[in-house]
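Reviewers of the previous submission asked for a worked example of the structure-prediction workflow described in the proposal, so we include one complete record here. The input consisted solely of the amino acid sequence. No template or homolog information was supplied to the procedure at any stage.
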Amino acid sequence: MRRAFSWPVFRRFVGTVVVGATLVATSGCTVPVDAVTGISVTGDGHLVGVMMICGHHIDGATLYVDSTDVKSQTTMGSWTADRPLTAGLVTWPLDTPAAGWTVTKPLAPLTAGTTYVLYGWTKDNSWSSASVSFTLTDRDRLTPGEVHYDDLSANGDGSPTAVPTADFTATACRDT
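From that input alone, the workflow returned the following structure tokens.
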């Protein structure tokens, strides 16, 4: 008895397996976003972290050098909240200790021409914040009472913007 073998069917089967394996290998789990991070400045020009937490909680924040090369994403500072931060606006100075925060890595000197990213996280990776990208030029353009953040559109793309803190508080959570 002779077996019927179809090369086109076999090729489709192999192609389906390859595509499926590729999708499984390249799809990663992401931490859901439930907060929006921004930066501001004090009256004397010190950098301030700003976060609007939308509903769950955030445990801390990290500032790093933005790079497509993961090995170049140097952590420039990290802060852990003394207790989980819940819904609402949170601010803290990035260059000095602050009540309610533990500095886990003091802020390193920032340099011109470098893009930095600040984001919030939870210890168990259950939630995160939308990050903000900025340069020292972005920081220098801010006035006290303004928040620089990446305003998320419906498709998840961020557009850098600076708004009064009241506007940030009122609108930051609309797209999370």
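The two ends are 63 Å apart (CA to CA). We consider this example representative of the routine output the project will generate in years two and three.
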